[in-house]
Every structure is written in structure tokens, then in C-alpha cells.
Amino acid sequence: MQEDSAYHYRTIARAIDLIEAEGGRTMPLEDLATRLSMSPAHFQRVFSRWVGVSPKRYQQYLTLDLARRLLSERFTLLDTAAETGLSGTGRLHDLFLGWEAMSPGEYARGGEGLVIRYGWFPTPFGEALAMGTDRGLCGLGFADDCGREAAMADLSGRWPKARFLDDADAIAPWVAAAFAGKGEARLHMIGAPFQVKVWEALLTIPSGQVTTYSELARAIGHPTAVRAVGTAVGRNPVSWLIPCHRALRKSGGLGGYHWGLPVKRAMLAWEAARAEAKSA
After folding, report:
1. HSE (side-chain half, CA atoms, 13 Å) at 26
2. Can you name the residues that pair with 134 across neighbouring β-strands?
3. Among 100, 257, 130, residue whose Cα is nearest residue 190
4. How far lies 9's CA from each of 46, 104, 107, 194, in Å?
5. Do residues 236 and 258 make contact, with C-beta atoms less than 8 angstroms apart?
6. Higher pLDDT, 15 or 96
């Protein structure tokens, strides 16, 4: 990534952390800018560029009733995921996202014969560990809550027989596209067949909208398997691009999130604010 992009990502990540720490109290622009050692005008420009709305508007989404508001205003029904096919290509705003899945036999071998390259990247939601094969990103997790060592053990442990190479440059273009929301990124889904069906259904949820675990279960043809669907959502190895953060409890709760609920809340608020800005 370019140096200025990394700087902006770190700035936004720090701003989100500061906003989260206030527990719902809106921080004045001047206070936020001072805490970040920036002028108010410069901070406003940087924040608005990456989030799409002003810091004040973004903070309005980070309220305790965020999940309930999203379910009432931005809930989406899902078409049956199988209709799209795993070889399809989806367009998410200006990001072209293609995906394919590992065969069940390949998955059963625990990644044997795979070369997985990885690297650490700054993002608006904290430091991310990204992993990818020659066919696309297969892992994306966030380390702020659990730490680098635990994040690495978590993702690499999913494919214990693969060979891992520290090679951030090889996957940097996909990661940059993922967080800039433009360009092209590819996904290589490595999971059990049921998990892949759930992850494919997640890919049909538009940015800025949400659904429920029970709706996901219905969409993949297993309406009574809500608990199993929730487990599969939690095992999603490619956070953000396979948007497990868009799955909420039917009751209006945020539900769990593998990399920490503050990250999920920040992602949902980010997307909702950008969606509103685009429709205004």
C-alpha cells in the first residue's frame, strides 16, 4: 500500500477507537482532532475521505441501538445463494469481487500442497492479518483485540498442512482493493461445504444492509439450522469481504463477532453511514 494510505488507515483506526471509548457520547470535532494531533479541518478531510461522511454523522451511527435500527431500516431478504453459483462475480460498489471454493476433498486434506502467503496491513478497523493463495484471499482477521500471535495461530491453524510464506507484497493489491472499495479482489474460500454455502449467502448481503442468522438459514435451504449457521458465520476466515458482520440476531442484538464486537460495530456504522451518504 502507498505510504499515505497506510497513514490514513491508522488515523481512521485511532479515531474509531477514540469514538468507541466514549460509549455513545459524541466527541466534538475539535476534541477528536486534538487527540489525533491534527487540525480540525485536516482531520475532517481525512475522515470524510475514507468514511464518506463527517465524524459527527458517523458517531450518530455508533449508538447502543445500532443493531435494532439497522434491522428496522436496512434489513434485506436474501435470494437463495445457490442461484448465483460459486463461479460468479459480484460487484460491490466500485469493487469487483470474484470467488471460488476449494473442493471438499482439498478441504479435507487440511491445506496440504497449498502455499499461503501472508502479511500485516493497516486498516480502518485496526491491524489486519491477510492470507492468500494463488487463487485469492483465503484469510483476513483483525489483531487489535486478540494480538498478532493469536490472530496468526487462529488463521494458520485452519489449514495445518499448508506452507505459509511471509510475503505481504504478493497479496497487497487484493487487500488494498478490499479496503479502498475499488479495483478487483479475489477470494479463495477454504471451508467445509456447509460453511461455504453460508459464506456465499453472506456475499449476497449488500453493503450498508443487514440480515439475520435465521434469514441466512432460510436462504441456504436449511431454515431450522440457525445454530449451525451461526457457527459457520463465526468460522468465516475472510472477515470484511465475506461480510459476517452484517449478520445480526433476530432479537435486535449485534450477536457475536470473532474479532471483537467493537470491530463489528465500527464496520456496521461505517457501511450504514456511507450508504446513507450515497443515497442522499
Report:
1. 10
2. none
3. 100
4. 9, 37, 34, 34
5. yes
6. 15
**Residue 86, burial from CB neighbour count under 10 angstroms (0-12, 13-18, 19+):** middle
Residue 141 corresponds to which amino acid? G
User: Annotated active-site positions, please?
Assistant: 244
Contact, 121 vs 175, CB < 8 A?
yes
Amino acid at 235: R
The answer to whether the beta carbons of residues 33 and 15 sit under 8 Å apart is: no
pTM > 0.90: no
The number of residues in the chain equals 280
280 pLDDT tier (thresholds 50, 70, 90) = low
- At position 79, the amino acid (one-letter code) is D
- Which residue, 9, 17, 6, is CA-closest to 265? 17
- From the CB of residue 30, how many other CB atoms can be counted at a distance below 10 Å? 11
Weakest-pLDDT range from 58-67, 115-124, 269-278:
58-67
Q: Which residues contact 48 (CB under 8 A, 6 or more apart)?
A: 54, 55
